[in-house]
Amino acid sequence: TFNLVDGVGLYGGFPPGGGNWNDRNPNTYETILTGDCEIYKVVRAS
């Protein structure tokens, strides 16, 4: 389970190695939250 902390934003879509906000492109750079590939995952946010 990934528990996202209240009041904290999680942004993806950045190129490998990071980049700045202007480099962000979620359609090009997929963001994946992953743990052990053998285990069921849950993401919770509000």
Largest sheet: 2 strands, parallel
Mean pLDDT: 81
Poorly predicted residue ranges: none
- Proportion of residues in β-strands: 5-15%
Helix content: under 10%
Give the count of structural domains.
1
Number of separate strands: 2
Cα end-to-end separation: 14 Å
Q: Can you list the strand order of the major beta sheet?
A: 1-2
Shape: flat
N-to-C SSE string, H for helix and E for strand: EE
Map the helices and strands.
Layout: E1 2-3, E2 43-44
Parallel strand pairs: 1-2
Structure overview:
This protein has one domain (1-46). The protein is 0% helix and 9% strand. The chain is built from no helices and two strands. It has a two-stranded parallel sheet with strand order 1-2. The radius of gyration is 13 Å and the shape is flat. It starts with a strand and ends with a strand.
Summary keywords:
46 residues; little secondary structure; two-stranded parallel sheet; 9% strand
Task: Describe, in short, the structure shown.
The chain has 46 residues and is largely without helices or strands.
